[in-house]
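We were asked to recover a plausible sequence for a given structure. The inputs and outputs are reproduced exactly as logged, with field labels preserved.

PROBLEM: sequence recovery
POSITIONS: 390
GIVEN STRUCTURE:
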């Protein structure tokens, strides 16, 4: 127990090899070694304990915390992922009714909270690769488990990002009808199971809606180029990608479970926003599904929404892209505004420079003032001393 608490890997290994030592022994607070390892953010130790049969869903802790909850608040994403993969329940609540994802969000570990909300194990898909009852073929061909699982786990919900992923995974598009049907089924399952998961249901529904659109284009053209282009295209007055906004708004409105609190909340958030203004439907969807605050747009790719886009438009330096591919897609819209943005950039830099110069001038003036004061003080001191001397 102490070894797990102190993060002593070798000692943990030694202890659990001693016959008679229970891997799920409890400390005075009802905490197991696995929970300690999770709380300390030590996936290496947690892995050993899990391999020894530690119960990831042990609930003897005095406040009902599970190993997943401890990992979630530790801020360690690897430990969190490990608990999820080991089958840590995402719906268990602690003694005050909070789930692991809510606890992570509460302490500011939004990456962990997003990971938990978006977690869906590969095994959950595996069951659909088996032929059941009167089926002639499985709902999901085995070779599509991996690419579909990756699609489901993406936290970037930008329709261009999803469509580009599908474009690259033509095997998914070849069976798109099946995939759409399965996503709809998964959405239904999330809503009808005992522990309803509205977040995942919304995500499955949204993915299904995008795939249905992709399907149309794929069937007529054999690729998604025209579809992706239409999504990226900005309207004339301000370059805002209107079609994306409308697509996401429609998909939220079409969520088949109108009694869902999450859906109602989203519709209420979207309704008063004029198309083209913030927050966008994508902002609202992402924050509902991923539990994140709205990502600031200047960090993400203008075309596909991926975070940490590094490449800037070389002319205006005001927009960012993942790579040349994303930049090329956006150019037909961006070129109309690039010059304007470039002027803005020059103005912005000029203003920045002016402010800097002003700051510097002020600093110099302050220094001069200080020197003067010092000089004066010295003079006064001399005067004060002189008569005494004399
Ligand atoms: Zn991009
Ligand atoms: Zn530009």
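RECOVERED SEQUENCE:
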């Amino acid at each position: 127990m102490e070894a797990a608490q102190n993060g002593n890997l070798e000692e943990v290994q030694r202890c659990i090899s001693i016959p008679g030592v229970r891997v799920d022994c409890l400390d005075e607070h009802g905490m197991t070694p696995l929970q300690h390892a999770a709380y300390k953010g030590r996936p290496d130790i947690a892995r050993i304990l899990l391999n020894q049969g530690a119960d990831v869903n042990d609930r003897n802790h005095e406040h009902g915390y599970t190993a997943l909850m401890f990992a979630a608040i530790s801020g360690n994403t690897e430990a969190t992922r490990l608990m999820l993969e080991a089958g840590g329940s995402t719906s268990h609540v602690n003694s005050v009714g909070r789930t692991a994802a809510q606890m992570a969000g509460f302490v500011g570990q939004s990456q962990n909270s997003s990971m938990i909300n978006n977690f869906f194990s590969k095994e959950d898909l595996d069951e659909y690769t088996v032929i059941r009852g009167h089926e002639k073929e499985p709902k999901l061909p085995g070779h599509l488990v991996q690419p579909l699982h990756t699609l489901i786990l993406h936290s970037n919900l930008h329709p261009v990002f999803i469509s580009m992923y599908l474009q690259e995974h033509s095997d998914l598009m070849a069976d798109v009808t099946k995939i759409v049907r399965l996503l709809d089924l998964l959405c239904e399952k999330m809503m009808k199971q005992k522990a309803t998961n509205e977040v995942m249901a919304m995500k499955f529904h949204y993915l299904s809606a995008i795939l249905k659109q992709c399907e149309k284009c794929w069937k007529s053209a054999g690729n998604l180029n025209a579809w992706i282009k239409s999504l990226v295209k900005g309207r004339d007055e301000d370059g805002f990608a209107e079609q994306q906004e409308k697509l996401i708004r429609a998909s939220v409105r079409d969520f088949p479970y109108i009694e869902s609190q999450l859906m109602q909340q989203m519709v209420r958030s979207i309704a008063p926003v004029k198309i083209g203004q913030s927050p966008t439907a994508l902002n609202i969807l992402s924050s509902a599904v991923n539990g994140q605050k709205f990502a600031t747009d200047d960090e993400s790719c203008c075309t596909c929404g991926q975070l940490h886009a590094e490449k800037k438009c070389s002319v205006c330096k005001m927009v960012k892209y993942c790579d040349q591919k994303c930049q090329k897609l956006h150019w037909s819209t961006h070129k109309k505004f690039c010059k304007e943005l470039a002027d803005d950039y020059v103005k912005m830099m000029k203003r920045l420079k002016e402010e800097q110069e002003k700051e510097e001038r002020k600093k110099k003036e302050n220094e001069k003032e200080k020197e003067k004061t010092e000089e004066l003080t010295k003079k006064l001191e001399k005067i004060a001393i002189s008569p005494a001397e004399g």
